[in-house]
């Protein structure tokens, strides 16, 4: 499907077939689960299907990766993680998977992606978002990444966010 | 926020049960009653300590497309350009960052083709180049925020 093309045909990211009921379940739950004793029954009632059907569909979407997880999304600013540094690294392309997996597994890295370089101005091909309570904490964590990469670190920098210019969630309609 | 709130945040970032009474199950794990857990979740959401309590959907697997894009905007043009960029409904998040590449935004579109169209439209509307940095691969992510 179309999403696969955007991701250069990686099989793990092909979009599984979702039907109209799946989409109605997504729309009904993406902003929040009802906080009532039987939340899936409440959704089922709203959609005119059985609770068993709602749970089975959600389980299927979890299994296929359409749902990453179900639970609480913390506001990291309010939890005291006020510094957010986007660390970007220039590493050899042929080692990117091995190095990306190592860095992604660090508990203080929230996102880790291989992205394209834009030479000459942008030589970085590995992005790792690092969260900390303040900048020195982020810097110490970035130093840990640099140590882990060793000679494979051909240059890196950290971009701190100074302002949120816009933030709307991702929504499907 | 007390230690029970912290336990809830630390324990419930995933794995919420798909069952008839999921709050009762999750509460039992935390040594709480179902009512107490629901009340505390309401409260954490109200206070903004949690932004959502929901299934986290994977945008690309829903058939849409996402990309990260960056721009280099001179300081005296920054507000004007930010206004134009934010006016595009496809721009989901936009952050100012300290770097020559000083504007970073996520584009979310219904189709992959639309990504390139929107990039072209933003370049035309602002007069500045948009550097498209789509994710080529996502690596395992281990983070759980400790409250």
From TrEMBL, chain A:
Residues 79-166 form the Siroheme decarboxylase AsnC-like ligand binding domain. It is an enzyme of class 4 (lyase). Pathway: Porphyrin-containing compound metabolism. Residues 22-68 form the Siroheme decarboxylase NirL-like HTH domain. The keyword Transmembrane helix does not apply. InterPro entries: AsnC_trans_reg2 (IPR040523), HTH-Siroheme_Decarb (IPR050684), NirdL-like_HTH (IPR053953), Tscrpt_reg_AsnC-like (IPR019888), Tscrpt_reg_HTH_AsnC-type_CS (IPR019885), WH_DNA-bd_sf (IPR036390). Keywords: Lyase. Pfam families: AsnC_trans_reg2, NirdL-like_HTH. Involved in heme d1 biosynthesis. Catalyzes the decarboxylation of siroheme into didecarboxysiroheme. Belongs to the Ahb/Nir family. Probably forms a complex composed of NirD, NirL, NirG and NirH. All proteins are required for the total conversion of siroheme to didecarboxysiroheme. This is siroheme decarboxylase. It comes from Sulfuricaulis limicola.
TrEMBL record, chain B:
It is an enzyme of class 4 (lyase). The keyword Lyase applies. It catalyses: siroheme + 2 H(+) = 12,18-didecarboxysiroheme + 2 CO2. Its EC number is 4.1.1.111. Probably forms a complex composed of NirD, NirL, NirG and NirH. All proteins are required for the total conversion of siroheme to didecarboxysiroheme. Involved in heme d1 biosynthesis. Catalyzes the decarboxylation of siroheme into didecarboxysiroheme. This is siroheme decarboxylase. It comes from Sulfuricaulis limicola.
